[in-house]
Amino acid sequence: MIVAAAVCPPAPALVPEVGVGLPEMVEIRASAAAAVQTLIAAQPERIVVIGPREVPVDVDESGGGTFAGFGVPFAAGGPNVTALPAAYTVAAWLLDQAEWTGPRLYSSSRPQLGHGEALLVMADSDTLVGVSAPTHGDPRAAKVAEVIAGALATGDAQALADLDVDEAVEWEGTGIAPLQLMGDMTKGAHIAARLRSDEAPFGVRYWVADWQLTQR
After folding, report:
1. Rounded to an integer, what is the distance from CA 112 to the centroid of its chain?
2. Terminus of the chain with fewer CB atoms < 10 Å: N or C?
């Protein structure tokens, strides 16, 4: 049973030492920290990190990652610092900063769940929004981004579950796959939702949200 979920962007710039000189990230960083604290306050038995699928990931709390590739000489998560790609390393850092010491699972696919799980979903709009994006925005992408923002704000798990991940690949929208999985895993629950942040500082839409779930 899932008791809570949080959505944060998988942006290494969330880490202050990586995002130094980027004032656009200050409020997003604070929102992400608050969302993860809310996740922990739900007292889950385990936190499951759901992230991008490009590199298969399936590792427990022994998994870690490093920010050395971004010029920052420190790691996050567990002792196996070669186990986690960047998006999951950001999640590990968020959990470390929140002082979560319980069990973790990092997964790029639908995991087996037990009782009292919480989800930390690392997802963004990739390169989809606006002419300042790393690639120019696709008009379909802006529509999908609005659907996602509305679903996160209202707790509409079904709307996330209905996202067309295969179609999104056509405009490089691979970042929405974790959100689609989150929706599929939480649909049918009663959800108290809060969208804390919805920004696109670099042409990439970043959402921060947290959901509290109870079974109907």
Report:
1. 19
2. C
Cα-Cα-Cα-Cα dihedral sign, residues 117, 120, 126, 131:
positive
> What letter represents residue 61's amino acid?
E
Dump strand ranges (E) for the chain. Answer: 2-8, 46-50, 58-60, 64-66, 75-77, 104-107, 117-122, 189-199, 206-215
Report the candidate in 16, 11, 44 with the shortest Cα–Cα distance to residue 207.
Answer: 11
pLDDT per position as a tens digit, 49-84: 999 988 899 999 999 999 999 999 999 999 999 999
pLDDT in tens, 99-137: 999 999 999 999 999 989 999 999 988 655 555 444 456
SS3 percent helix, strand, coil of the chain, rounded to 5, is 35, 25, 40
Integer CA distances (angstroms), 111 to 11, 108, 185, in order: 23, 8, 10
- Please provide residue 52's backbone torsions phi and psi, each rounded to the nearest 5 degrees: -60, 155
The β-bridge relationship of strands 206-215 and 189-199 is antiparallel
Output the pTM of the full model.
Answer: 0.93
Short-list 96, 91, 130, 75, CA closest to 8: 91
- Whether 9 contacts 205, CB under 8 Å: no
Q: Which of 209, 211, 156 is closest to 180 using CA atoms?
A: 156
Instruction: Enumerate domains of the chain plus CATH numbers.
Output: 2-51+115-215 (3.40.830.10)
Closest CA to 24 of 201, 197, 198, 170: 201
